[in-house]
Structures are given as C-alpha cells and as structure tokens.
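User: Run a structure prediction on this.
Assistant: Running it now.
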Amino acid sequence: MDKFRQNTRLFFSNKIGVAGLVILSAFIFVGIFGELIAPYDPNARVGLPFQPPSANHLLGTNDVGHDILSEILVGTRISLVVGILAATVSLILGSLVGLTAGYFGGRVEEILMRIVDVFLTIPMVPLLIVVAAFVGPGFRNMIIVIGALSWASSARTIRSKVLMLKNKGYIEAVRGLGGKPFYTIFRHILPATSSLIIAELILMSSRAVLLESTLSFLGLGDPTQKSWGMILYYAQARSAFLLGSWVWWILPPGLLITLLVVSFAFIGNALEQIANPRLR
C-alpha cells in the first residue's frame, strides 16, 4: 500500500502525466455518454449534403446529410474500445513471451527472442495492411490482427525487467525452497513488473488507436460502425478534399486522433518514469 501511495504521488506530481489523464478522462466520458450528448442520430439525414458548420450543425454535414459532430461523438467509443482491446491482446502475448524468455533463459529464451527479432524487423504497417486485408474488414478482426502483430517490443522490454528481477535475493530464495517456475513467475515476478506492464499497456493503446485509424482509413474497418478512422475513410472516398468540406469533415477527427494518442503518450511517459527512475 505504501508503494502504491508513493507511485500515485509521483504520478500526480508529473504535470504532463496529469494533463494526459485529464484529456483521456474526457475522451472516456464522451465514449460512455456519446450517444446521449450527440445532438442527432449519427445515421439519420438531418441536413443538406456538405452543409458547412452552422448553429444547427456545429461541424457541418457529410455527403448524405449526417451530422458530423454526432458521428464523432458516437465514434469515440469505437476508437477507444478497439485501441484498448487490441493493446490488451498485444500486451498479454508480449508479457507471456517476455516472462517466459526472461525467467527460463537458455534455449527457450534464444528461440523466443529470435521470433521477437523477426517481428521487430518486419515493417509493421505494411504487414498489418496485408494481414488485415486477408482476414477481412471488421473491428473484431482488426483487434486480433493488431494485437497479434504488435507484441514484440513489449516482450523485449518485459524480458529485460525479468532478467533483473530473477537474480534478486528473494526470488532466488523462493526457487531454492522449491518454488515451481510458474508459481514464482505469477506470484512474485509478475507483481514486481506490474508498473512496467501498465505503462506498456498505455503506450501500446496509443499505437493501437493510431493503427486502427490507419486501417479504417484504408477501408479495412467495419463500414457499419462510426469510428474516427471510418469517418476519415468516407470523407476521403467521397471527395471531401475536392469539395472543400475537409475543413469540417477531416480536420476535427484527425485532430482528435492526434490528441488521444498524445494523451496516452503523456500518461505512459509518466508511468515509465515511475517504473524506471533513471528516466526522470
């Protein structure tokens, strides 16, 4: 409990981390209550096509008369959920690989880290595009694809932490008393890496949100759902740049994606400083 209080105090003393938390909290609020605060049904035709911003439609309308502000508010939930779930899948895989490789060492570590090196060598975005196109569009497939292909960097980071921990006196004492490998890993080593894992989850969420937006923009998202990436896809596909409507159709969701990624990065940076005091 004292360690938790100390880490909490360190986090809230970091102005960048607090700013990121405030921004992310606002996005989460909108994600939860977006449908309630949206002025219109995002799937209903409530105005003329390509109508510029006005008192009735603060961000204008798209090519079929949908209110863009309502689309953005409702799409916040999809972008957040896909990003966080994809990051969670990725972190679970990375944690399992990192914990196993760091603790067992030897041949197991060598094989696992060669696999990690392969994933880190392959350009991530082109690989994601190819695999996502192969498995088909849809947010469920996108979560699986992003999670299954973006775990390698976290695996390497967690492995380095485990290598430091497994030579600690209390870990050697547990092993000397006959503690089974998986008991030692999940009872003693995993809790000691929890702050690092949380920091990795936050940072990976920022990458996952960006990757989701990229894949959706390329038409690999779910066309029946209103995510920020799909809003950008339809804007680009329906000549927003040619007709001058990009100012209210493309710019707002693009800026929100950037702001959300930055908020995750701020929080992750603050948590990394807590997990690794040398970064302060």
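The two ends are 23 Å apart (CA to CA).
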